[in-house]
């Protein structure tokens, strides 16, 4: 068998194994939570909202039932939901809210990793469709053969987040398609017809090298304000024939650059004779909505017609912007002439569902029972059939008419886009998406443009964290140190029972994300690569393939010298497509955006120097901006106020104060918090606010969920929800005028745990525009590896260092 086929088999197999492991870890963790936690605890963990009542049932696209829930005034003093992690696109279940008891546990379907919403008795599963501060809408597909279509909803409900296996199913499908495309029939899984392999797929897999770029000399840029590196990235993306990567460090205008690329691709010019069709994807709904909002806000010249943009899937927030809502497929399909024909049926259908659920107009809180109910359901079934028939073709018509379709990578694998093809697919935040999810849209286009920053946080991988934990032994203090980012890890961090570790696979030695950056080569690209991408052995090389040896013991890897174009099976799912392409083709596959428009240059100095090898420059519009320049602040004559408003970086060093951390729960794997540090945060915020800084201009971030909870309990009563308090992971992609980082770790053993991940620290230290205040214990933190040590040394030399702000 040719060497390349070996590589392809090993690569696909490895991706599949890792995905299966991740799916198992997620399902297992979810199952443990649902069976071990009371509903109240689930709510505290952000995985459930209790005490809800159904207010409405509508019919959505595809004849889905849209069940709307709110907090009834009878049970709650405020209609606002407590903080939670339920997002549009999540799989969730409505359950009867019987307080105090344990939930009924995970359904068989969930345990088996089934992918379709289901109902059982008074539980209904579906996909979250919309989430606002006071209302949550679940879309339930009654056409699912496993679904009991009768909506017999409990009077008082709760909604609980479940493991999302739909995404894994789509990723698996994408891998199957890839396998059928690239492998001889004897090697591929049996399946239906698959289109022949495109040049793009060949390049992504290293079967062919990228074609020579087509030189474009006279590009007229729509946005004259683009800087040199942005223009060069746009040109590079347009000239590349199959794939182009754009590396955008924090605040360098990745999205700005992508918007220009989209405008260039979709318009006719001397360099682009025919407008192209573009699919814009992202790792999250939030990422794609960000691009969508900017696309829709573009000015339209008199000679131009407005870009035809359609958003497929679930917008992340309930947008105040009518443009955004109006661009969703649901709204567009509803507005079309053909849709008017379906409206009567839809109205009738909704009225019948209202009566059946006891929530409709003439229902008076009672729903029909027995024979009457059965008869009515038959009517509903007929109406739904008719509705789907009339709706048929409307969706396709809207999509065929769209020049730009915007969706998450995952949603691009849905039914609605099944027959759609595009000239170019763009993936924003590609360094936060698992490689397999990127393959879902890749099959739909001839060319791929990826944007992201491999030096910020990668996708969060649960199975990796389980593996690390296990490797170091339960109860080992190191285990807590290597634990998952709290954003996701918090889900199970407090539980005594942890998900069983999946079987080991043969992978290289444990990564060291925190090696000294100065150890890296200076060549651009290589210099910025993370240090966790050693080459795992290829299948066949070690005689066992890249999988579990029969003994179950991992053999030490045979590390082979990487040749350009070699396809290397990933070691973990943290290796993204962006990372892999950079490793496979070298720095020539990407362009770096090198001017940042966010941070005062003092705030940007350390990350630029140590993470981006001094390549990141600060635009003059932000280089010296301070809190003092905000219209709502005034330093006047007060020295203390001046100090706060005119200083870009403050370090409050609690070394020697014995402000020790505390572990939440009764063993060392719990999340950490630090009460004394939280009090310092509070005092510092008072000082900022007294100086005129608005709570909306401040964010408090910390790596630990337990510290977030503690800080929220102290700060929310004073500042409400105006001030943002969150984990570092949750702040990626965001910015605030003033950011306070609470580092939490302070202990005699000098352990810093996952704080030392330089990508997490990079995200933390690059969120602030005008003022960054770090609060931490240097005597502990400096022992967390070279990166943290360098940061502490830099802070001591460059920040306004304070030792106590208590008095
Ligand atoms: N050439 C430019 N001239 C002036 N301002 C710019 C330019 N490019 C980007 N900006 C501004 O910089 C800020 C960051 O841009 P954008 O949101 O596109 O960056 P990003 O790289 O996507 O951000 P993030 O780091 O959050 O991922 C925005 O306020 C944007 O308007």
UniProtKB/TrEMBL annotation:
EC number: 3.6.4.12
GO molecular function annotation: 5'-3' DNA helicase activity; ATP binding; hydrolase activity; RNA binding
Bias (Acidic residues) ranges: 517-535
Keyword Aminoacyl-tRNA synthetase in record: no
Region (Disordered): 96-119, 457-567
InterPro entries: AAA+_ATPase, Coronavir_polyprotein_1ab, DNA2/NAM7-like_C, DNA2/NAM7_AAA_11, P-loop_NTPase, SF1_C_Upf1, SMUBP-2_HCS1_1B
Transmembrane helix among keywords: no
GO cellular component: chromosome; cytoplasm; nucleus
Transmembrane parts of this sequence: none
SMART domains: AAA (SM00382)
Domain annotation AAA+ ATPase: ranges: 240-729
Location(s) in or outside the cell: Cytoplasm; Nucleus
Alphabetically ordered keywords of this record: ATP-binding, Cytoplasm, Helicase, Hydrolase, Nucleotide-binding, Nucleus
Family assignment from sequence similarity: Belongs to the DNA2/NAM7 helicase family.
Record protein name field: DNA helicase
Compositional bias segments (type: Low complexity): 536-553
Bias type Basic and acidic residues, positions: 483-498
Gene3D superfamilies recorded: 2.40.30.270, P-loop containing nucleotide triphosphate hydrolases
């Amino acid at each position: 068998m040719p060497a390349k086929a070996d590589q392809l088999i090993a690569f696909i197999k490895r991706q599949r194994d890792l995905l299966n492991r991740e799916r198992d870890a997620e399902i297992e963790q979810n199952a443990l939570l649902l069976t071990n936690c009371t509903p109240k605890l689930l709510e505290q963990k952000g995985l459930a909202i209790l005490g809800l009542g159904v207010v409405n049932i509508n019919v959505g696209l595809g004849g889905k039932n849209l069940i709307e829930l709110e907090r009834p005034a009878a049970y709650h003093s405020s209609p606002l939901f407590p903080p939670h992690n339920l997002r549009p696109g999540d799989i969730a279940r409505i359950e009867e809210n019987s307080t105090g008891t344990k939930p009924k546990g995970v359904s068989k379907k969930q345990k088996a990793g089934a992918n379709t919403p289901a109902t059982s008795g008074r539980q209904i599963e579906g996909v979250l469709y919309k989430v606002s501060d006071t209302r949550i809408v679940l879309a339930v597909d009654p056409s699912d053969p496993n679904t009991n279509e009768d909506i017999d909803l409990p009077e008082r409900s709760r909604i609980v987040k479940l493991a999302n296996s739909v995404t894994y199913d789509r990723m698996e499908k994408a891998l199957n398609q890839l396998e059928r495309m690239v492998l001889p029939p004897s090697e591929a899984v049996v399946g239906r017809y698959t289109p022949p392999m495109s040049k793009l797929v060949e390049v992504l897999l290293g079967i062919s090298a990228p074609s020579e770029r087509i030189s474009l000399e006279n590009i007229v840029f729509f946005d004259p304000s683009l800087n040199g590196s942005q223009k060069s990235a746009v040109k590079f993306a347009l000239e590349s024939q199959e794939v182009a990567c754009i590396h955008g460090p924090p605040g360098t205008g990745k999205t700005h650059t992508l918007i220009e690329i989209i405008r260039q691709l979709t318009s006719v010019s001397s360099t682009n004779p025919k407008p192209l069709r573009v699919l814009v994807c992202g790792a999250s709904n939030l990422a794609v909505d960000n691009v969508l909002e900017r696309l829709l806000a573009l000015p339209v010249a008199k000679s131009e017609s407005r870009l035809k943009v359609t958003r497929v899937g679930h917008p992340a927030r309930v947008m105040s912007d009518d443009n955004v809502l109006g661009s969703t497929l649901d709204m567009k399909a509803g507005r079309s002439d053909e849709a008017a024909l379906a409206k009567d049926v839809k109205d009738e259908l909704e009225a019948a569902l209202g009566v059946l659920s006891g929530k409709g107009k003439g229902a008076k809180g009672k729903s029909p029972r027995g024979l009457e109910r059965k008869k009515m359901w038959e009517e509903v079934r007929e109406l739904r059939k008719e509705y789907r028939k009339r709706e048929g073709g409307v969706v396709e018509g809207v999509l065929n008419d769209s020049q730009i379709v915007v969706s998450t990578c995952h949603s691009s694998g849905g039914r609605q886009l099944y027959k759609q093809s595009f000239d170019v697919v763009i993936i924003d935040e590609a360094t936060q998406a698992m490689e397999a999810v990127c393959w879902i849209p890749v099959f739909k286009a001839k060319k791929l443009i990826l944007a992201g920053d491999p030096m910020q946080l990668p996708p969060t991988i649960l199975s990796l964290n389980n593996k690390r934990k296990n490797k170091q032994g339960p109860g080992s203090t190191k285990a807590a140190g290597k634990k998952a980012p709290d954003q996701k890890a918090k889900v199970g961090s407090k539980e005594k029972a942890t998900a069983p570790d999946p079987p080991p696979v043969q992978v290289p030695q444990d990564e060291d994300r925190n090696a000294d950056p100065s150890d890296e080569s200076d060549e651009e690209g290589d210099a910025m690569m993370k240090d966790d991408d050693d080459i795992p052995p290829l299948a066949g090389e070690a005689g066992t393939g890249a999988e579990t040896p029969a003994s179950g013991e991992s053999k030490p890897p045979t590390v082979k010298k990487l040749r350009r174009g070699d396809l290397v099976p990933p070691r973990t799912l943290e290796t993204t497509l962006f990372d892999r392409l950079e490793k496979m083709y070298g720095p020539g596959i990407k362009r770096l955006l090198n001017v940042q428009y966010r941070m005062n240059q003092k705030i940007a100095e350390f990350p630029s120097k140590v993470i981006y090898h001094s390549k990141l420059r600060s635009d003059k519009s932000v280089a010296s901006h301070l809190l003092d320049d905000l219209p709502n602040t005034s330093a006047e004559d007060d020295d203390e106020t001046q100090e706060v408003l005119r200083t870009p970086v403050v370090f409050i060093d609690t070394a020697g104060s014995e402000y020790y951390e505390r572990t939440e729960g009764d063993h060392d794997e719990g999340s950490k918090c630090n009460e004394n540090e939280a009090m310092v945060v509070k005092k510092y915020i008072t000082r900022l606010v007294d100086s005129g800084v608005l709570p909306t201009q401040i964010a408090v971030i910390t790596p630990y969920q337990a510290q977030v909870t503690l800080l929220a309990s102290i700060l929310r009563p004073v500042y409400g929800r105006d001030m943002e308090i969150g984990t570092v992971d949750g702040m990626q992609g965001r910015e605030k005028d003033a950011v306070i980082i609470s580092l939490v770790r302070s202990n005699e053993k000098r352990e810093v745990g996952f704080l030392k991940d330089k990508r997490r620290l990079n995200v933390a230290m690059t969120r602030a525009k005008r003022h960054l205040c770090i609060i931490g214990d240097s005597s502990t933190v400096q022992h967390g590896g070279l990166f943290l040590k360098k940061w502490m040394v830099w802070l001591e030399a460059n920040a306004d260092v304070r030792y106590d702000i208590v008095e």
